[in-house]
Input
Amino acid sequence: MNEPTAPARRPGGRTAEVRRRVLAATRDLLVERGFDALGIDAVAERCGVHRTTVYRRWHDVGGLLADVLAQAAGDDWTPPDTGSLAGDLVALNREVHSALTTGPPITGALIAASFRSARAAEALRAFWDDRYARCAVIVERAARRAEIPGRTDPRRLLVAATAPLYHELVLLRAPFTAGQAETAAHDTAAGARAGAFTVPGPA
Amino acid sequence: MNEPTAPARRPGGRTAEVRRRVLAATRDLLVERGFDALGIDAVAERCGVHRTTVYRRWHDVGGLLADVLAQAAGDDWTPPDTGSLAGDLVALNREVHSALTTGPPITGALIAASFRSARAAEALRAFWDDRYARCAVIVERAARRAEIPGRTDPRRLLVAATAPLYHELVLLRAPFTAGQAETAAHDTAAGARAGAFTVPGPA
Output
């Protein structure tokens, strides 16, 4: 995406720049003032892009939120690769814990918005499905290293490792430390080594 | 709570009857029309109780939702007792799966409402904390039967068993069958038997 002929401009040109500004304003407004404050007019005013431009491309709040998540899913994120299943899951859970507890609470705000907008809900599911698919390599590498059975189901294992963080922090709004997130990773790795998360059939 | 001297009346007398009607109307409106349709006036009209009565006792939507959850928490529910850890967790996850997928979607609606009302969020957390505390006996019985180590943490194990259901069905809105819920229970039991969910120290 780099444009070496226009070094002073950000990559992607004017359309990409407008998108960046509009989505940044959407995220900022969502975090600062919540779903009810979101609207084409508020976003346009915040980022200095003409409301007609925002309306034409994103249509409504659902379109804005879906594109925030599509932008997040479109990055080149790769899962941690530490050399062991437990190490990879600990690093992954540290990332999830950090996303849920530090900095602007955009993840929590997007989850809350998914209960208000069907398009945001669809986009959030697509985002998570993509992340879990990318993380399957963690489980596949562990199976190749013979840490766990070859017929271990990646999604079941990955959801088991990460779901307690969302459950405690997002749904129960309970205190849940980074240490507890690491413990959840170790619990899941221990279960996987003992044959949990396997599918029937020959190894 | 039975009142044998007044067999024609429901237990608890008129105050309890008003509460039952008001909370039933709150649940019905929440499920049918969502959080935005909830209000003292709408609830009062729905159940035929004077709005002043509703206002005086519950104050606002947060008060109504908190009492719906307090009423649910005040039941005499006890966790399943099937004779094995896996059996108890399977039965528990069947209950959670059923609550999330069949009948009026009151659980999902209350979770959604918890993102709109701080009082509903607090009450939801108290409800879940109470349920997990009641379920600790599942883990304690399994430890007494020597199925799992004696220093297994009940809450960690119980959240590991149930969190995937909330994650897939409520947050990701992904298809997740009763069979998958049972598999999550078996995965957790297998991990616990292998020593996951233990706390440091002597057994």
Observations:
- The domain at 85-193 of chain B is CATH 1.10.357.10 (Tetracycline Repressor; domain 2).
- The CA atoms of residues 80 and 91 of chain B lie 6 Å apart.
- Chain B touches chain A through 36 residues (CB under 8 Å).
- DSSP finds nine helices and no strands in chain B.
